[in-house]
Amino acid sequence: MRTLLIVFHSATGGTRQMAEAAARGAGGEDGVTVRLMHAGAAAPEDVLAAHAYIFATPENLGSMAGLMKDFFDRCYYPAFDKVNGCAYASMVCAGSDGQGAARQIERIATGWRLKPVAGPLIVCTHAQTPEAILAPKHIAAADLARCEEVGHMLAAGLGAGVF
Description:
By secondary structure, the protein is an alpha/beta fold. It is built from 6 helices and 7 strands; from the N terminus they run βαβαββαβαββαα. The chain has a single domain, classed as Flavodoxin domain (Rossmann fold, 3-Layer(aba) Sandwich). Strands 1, 2, 3, 4, 5, 6 and 7 form a 7-stranded mixed beta sheet that branches.
């Protein structure tokens, strides 16, 4: 069995919906176990037990969420030089841009020597006021379908031995 680990954080529900959609898309692939974990619960042993990853975060103030940063801080050195070549993708729920968070994940993944298998999937909620930023998010069906496609692609690649 190969394992796809999806690590996420979500304060307003948008990123959680995206991560759950990716897990749905990945589900059912023969020979692949999908693990969906909140960033606060994911540990180095979870990273080391996986063969591919999806990292999903909201963008806060142009950066990845603090709990995603905490996940990487806790797991980076225990997994360093032990996950080389594993496939990954990233997803960002952003109010406007998302590029800052995507770049941070890319830099960390580069340090881990992970192989990107898709560009960052950024879903823009257009939240621009304090009220809109803090409000619960509802991700559109078309965007959730894109998240499902990322999950399916990674699981299919794992199941076929491509990754």
